[in-house]
Amino acid sequence: MLTTRFVDGAPNWMDLGTPDLDGATAFYTALFGWEYEPGGPETGGYGMFTLDGRTVGGAMTVAEEQSKPSWSVYFQTADADATAQLVRESGGAAAFAPMDVLEFGRMGGFTDRAGAYFGVWQPKLIPGLGVVGDTGSLCWAELCTPDVPAAAAFYHAVFGWESAQVPYPDGGGSYTLIRTSGGGEEAGFGGLVPLEAVPVRAVVGPHWLPYIEVDDCDAAVAEAERLGGRLTREPLEVRGVGTFADVTDPYGAAFAVIKSAPTPAG
């Protein structure tokens, strides 16, 4: 379960890189009820999405010739430089070396063995997202990768993640659940899925996909389409999990929306 009691290895930030910051902020504020707080010159224009005053992510302008429009997921580390070394030793690469972000924290960007991009955030003044798991916020992180066992081994070496096979409720295989080290079942925050299992994701290549909690998956998809987004994977209901769908914003950044199933009593 993803919470704001962040521990090392847990998702603690996400941000959007887009060629049209004004258009993208208009889309997400209308879709999720977020507000956008522009960053000043000292942040290079990097701004924050908030929900009821709590930060749900960041956003910045990234030219299309520099990078495809995308959402990036960050994981907590107590030492970004040590994590960078582990990434290199485990077969990954640095997209950019760890750097200080004013007095807020220290960040780095990396790719895993398959080329999926992820970030790390070493907290200082900003511990991470202000809300997760609630409607309109990050609730799950999923890696689409061509080699699930290799990915599990890589991230175990870098973050100490544990993985477990969870059978699908209706049969037909299992899902690779990932969780932070030593936290047990309650520490699960995401999963690893074979890239070829979802053709629309395979086209994108290896990547991390953030899931945003919504009150109604079908309604969220309809609103996203009305606002200029595109449905790329039809809503799918999985017993005990919820109903989810893949969407891109008007500029091509991918994310998923989910109406999670109620947590069993007990």
Main attributes of the structure:
alpha+beta, single chain, 8-stranded mixed beta sheet, 266 residues, globular, 42% strand
Largest sheet: 8 strands, mixed
Could you tell me the strand content as a percent range?
35-45%
What pattern of helices and strands is seen along the backbone? EHEEEEHEEEEHEEEHEHEEE
**What do the pLDDT scores average to?**
95
Radius of gyration: 17 Å
Strand order of the largest sheet: 2-3-4-1-5-8-7-6
Give the strand tally.
Answer: 16
Describe this protein's structure:
By secondary structure, this protein is an alpha+beta fold. The chain is 19% helix and 42% strand. The protein is built from five helices and 16 strands. The strands form two sheets. Strands 2-3-4-1-5-8-7-6 form an eight-stranded mixed beta sheet. Strands 10-11-12-9-13-16-15-14 form an eight-stranded mixed beta sheet. The longest helix has 12 residues, at 21-32. It is globular, with a radius of gyration of 17 Å. The protein starts with 10 loop residues before the first strand and ends in a 6-residue tail after the last strand.
Task: Give a quick precis of the structure.
This protein has helices spanning 21-32, 80-89, 148-159, 199-204, 217-226; strands at 11-18, 35-37, 47-51, 54-61, 70-76, 93-101, 105-111, 117-123, 138-145, 162-167, 174-179, 188-194, 207-213, 230-238, 242-248, 254-260. Helix content is 19%, strand content 42%.
